């Protein structure tokens, strides 16, 4: 049984042409122990089915398997109990793993696996977790009958057919496995994650500008809400990703434009402190880029400020 499990995992990984050289060597060594004496050491529980582990080579990774989060740590985990391993995961995503449903993470893994077959270079492992965070929010909105328009759906379909295909696969998979029919424009929402993570060759000048903008916007938020943001948290990382993408859109002259006045007014009336903070940030961005923020960009900025402040326990 153990030998069969090793062979199954070996075939799974050997068919992954996106493996980095380092990970390939680690996995090659991992599968070539004499006598099949393959083992993982579980170091820390993340949740009932995820654990931080160390392989035979001393490399840390995240392992997924039913019930591996139970028991005393550290402990040895039988290979037959492991369904999936995730290498090169940033530490900040450990908290996300503990919050997202296992089934959704498995779905995101399938989406990234599908996407990998369409790319020549490796798709970042961390994309699984940022995509999971995005989809959990999208599924929640759908179940609560809250609709947010995603601009450029038509443009994305024609400008990025590969990423649009990935998005469609993801929406169809969620319908099949969770019974939730996301709106068709969410195809573009998923596609944007791959466009931003797999197609950007960020130049140094834009990167430097993005970091400068992020620092100033962070100061504005901290001053407005009289808080100290945890810069190492995933919530802050998610917020900075939004700002980086915004700076990219500014540079590409492709701001989001839509007609979501209802949600805009809802955010303005429900979260007045967030709206006021957004206006301060908008003023800074307009001075920096000499360009006005579209209403849709203002809306997305309010949503991200609100999410950041909610997790930072701001008193709004």
Automatic annotation (TrEMBL):
Q: Which GO terms describe its molecular function?
A: RNA binding
User: Does the record carry Transmembrane as a key word?
Assistant: yes
Transmembrane segment boundaries: 21-42
Pfam family, any one: PRD
List residues of the PRD domain: 99-204, 205-315
Annotated keywords? Membrane, Repeat, Transmembrane, Transmembrane helix
Q: Which InterPro entries match?
A: BglG_antiterminators, CAT_RNA-bd_dom, CAT_RNA-bd_dom_sf, PRD, PRD_sf
Cross-referenced Gene3D superfamilies: CAT RNA-binding domain, PRD domain
Q: What are the BP-aspect GO terms?
A: regulation of DNA-templated transcription
Asked whether the UniProt record includes Transmembrane among its keywords, one would answer: yes
SUPFAM superfamilies noted in UniProt: PTS-regulatory domain, PRD (SSF63520), SacY-like RNA-binding domain (SSF50151)
Protein name per Swiss-Prot or TrEMBL: Transcription antiterminator LicT
Give the organism the record lists: bioreactor metagenome
